[in-house]
Request: fold
Amino acid sequence: MDLGLKDKRALVMSSSRGLGLACATALVAEGAHVLLTGRSEDALKAAAADLTAKGPGKADYVVADLTDASTVETLASTAEEVLGGVDILVNNTGGPPPGRMADADLSVMAAQFDVMVMRVAEITARLLPAMRERGWGRIVTIASSGVIQPIPNLGLSNALRSALVGWSKSLANDVAADGVTVNMLLPGRIHTARVDQLDEAASKRTGKTLEETRAASRATIPAGRYGAPEEFGAVAAFLCSAPASYVTGGLIRCDGGAIKSV
Reply:
């Protein structure tokens, strides 16, 4: 299938590693020009060089810290300068510290809301008018399976990412007639450094070995394994594609069947 992504221009947030990098990799493989973002210039520079060398698309990067509100304009103006505009926006942020909601520090919750919710809404609002004017755009927001089935010991993540569900669906309804699709992509246990950190935290909390923790986690997944970042990136690329033009307002799961509800 031709995804129609050759020469499309994509801004992929928090993409020096993990799920963001997986999405960027898939888009470059389809011929898109991608702007990577993140806090580590060394990691970004290496990732951009690697993706460009593999082609057929290419990657550039901009250093950005989502804790700084001024970053939104920096990202948008850099994307317009480097890419010439943005056809595809992949919203992605880091996650908050693990822990029970009953024990949550509300000051941490407020700070994480700014990064995980407000920055996503702000960068989308900044780039959306040009997409609507051109009559073509793709907005994919990466969240978590916890917005459907709350994940134990990830109280802040469950709460904050859920705020994006209503935002995304409402926005999708508002701009569907303008040729812009808006979807959320929900990872389950995709094997990234973040999942390794969560498994290590669970091991310390429960007193189990890391392999015991991972085995217990795999046992809850019908597929019997963690997902590969490449599998996740492929789903993201499809949602950004031309053939996915009638897919909007959705919560798309990439979780190996882990979510128990239909």
User: Anything to note?
Assistant: The mean pLDDT is 96. The first strand starts at residue 9 and ends at 12. The chain is about 45% helix and 15% strand.
